[in-house]
Amino acid sequence: MESHQRTIRIADFELPRGAVTIEALMAMRRESWEHLRTEINLRRQVDPATPLARCRLCKSGVFIRAQAIKNDHLPMFVHFPEGSKDCPWYEGRNLRPDDARAAQYQGHQESALHRHLCETVEALAKADPRCEHSAVDTYLRPAIHRRGRWPDIYLEMGELGRFALEVQLAKPFAPEIAARHIHYDREGVRLIWIFNALEDPLPQGFHDVVTMQRGNAFLFDDETQIASIERGTLVLKCYLEDGEGGWLEPRLVTLDDLQTGGGRAAFVEDRRSDLLVARSKNCRTLWWRAFQQARQERPNSPFYSTAFTPAWEAVQAQVPGLDEWNTDFWTSRSDRGQVHLAMLFAILCSVAHSAETGTNCVYITKYSGEGAVLAMLNSKLSSADFKHCANLIDSFVRSTALADLADKPSFVRKVGEACDAEEQIASEHPIWQAIACLFPEALDGMVRAELSDLGRLPRWALPEN
Ligand SMILES: [Zn+2]
């Protein structure tokens, strides 16, 4: 039986992510914790003295280990090797990266299959008339040589650009993946990892590569070899994540099909960011549709429309505690939680849509034209209904392209008055969490940071320059 190990209960990430408990980590979608794991490793390569995440108790840097369990991986926080052995959460023996790397790389470098695949891939790529230079296992830059970092296959493909192809048979080691990506990115060389097979379950090292390649996996096998000969250029088999833990039907692609402009890695389709962007909007879209319907049905009192009920239920399913709050709210204010949330939604949508379009669109109150958003916010902050949400509204506005509104003297005064008058809801409050579900790009630190890392924050949620 496995011995019971101590484990890091809370890791503090740099803001906006903040504290992440082990429970929260384990409840995350694979894509989310893999992104964190990758960001931690990238930071470790670039600035080892400033870890992205620290142990709550000893403050030393932590990484995310993917613990293999049957058919899956369980993420957990682990101290980096230099972390304090005296930390009450120190987990005992650690894998030492250098040993692990040496063992893995020696193993596969010597493999005859690996050598054969590298030479085959290079020969097929060279058949493309655009190929100006190619090499296997060498890269004529002393600085890189010294660090022992040269690609399996190096290609200069004219206008297509320069490529480093890594044929990966053994599972790659996470810090090495991050190091290579940073290195080639600086060199202006596109890095592509090529597998020979997709094991099921896929070892975490392969998952890490797929994370870097935004949900794309590239394979070279007999079928792609034949296709490469036929087409006179290197053909790879591209597997795209289906967003449900599996893969879409693979398709054959060439280097021409790769998107290489966005930094990070080359990929055919950004499966991770696109799905994250879409997921972020899911709940909001339900509310927006309900609001449109409500305005048609009851133009004078849309917030009392039953059109909001399915949208309310969708949030209810995601925010534990919303039910209980709803009951309390009724008792103390004789108003329905659903109505309250619908009004808050209209207030914040006014801010988001105005931020997106650079105009004043206001969906609640009668203000219109220049200054309408500020006037609406000030009037809502003065009303008894929303005084307890002043901090929430303030945080929201500050996370949008309209952040400067939050520094207007009238707004600052209204927020101050509301805070003096009423106890404020905080980020653990069900209403705050419900709003974070509807606008994760602004209020969910994890989602906001990931979108920002990937350059995919929507315009309305971009910090001002
Ligand atoms: Zn610690």
Which key terms come to mind for this protein?
18 helices; 12 strands; Restriction Endonuclease; binds zinc ion; single chain; 465 residues; three-stranded antiparallel beta sheet
Low-confidence stretches: 94-99, 139-146
Count of distinct strands: 12
Mean pLDDT: 88
Q: Could you estimate the helical fraction of the residues in percent?
A: 40-55%
The strand order across the widest sheet is: 6-7-8-9-10-11-12
The main pleated sheet reads as:
7 strands, mixed
What is the chains' assembly state? single chain
- How far apart are the first and last residues' alpha carbons, in Å? 56 Å
Structural class: alpha+beta
Question: What portion of the residues fall into strands of 2 or more residues?
Answer: 5-15%
Radius of gyration: 26 Å
How many separate domains?
Answer: 3
Give me the number of helical elements.
18
Bound molecules: zinc ion
- Principal-axes geometry comes out as elongated
Run of helices and strands: EEHHEEEHHEHEEHEHEHEEHHHHHHHHHH
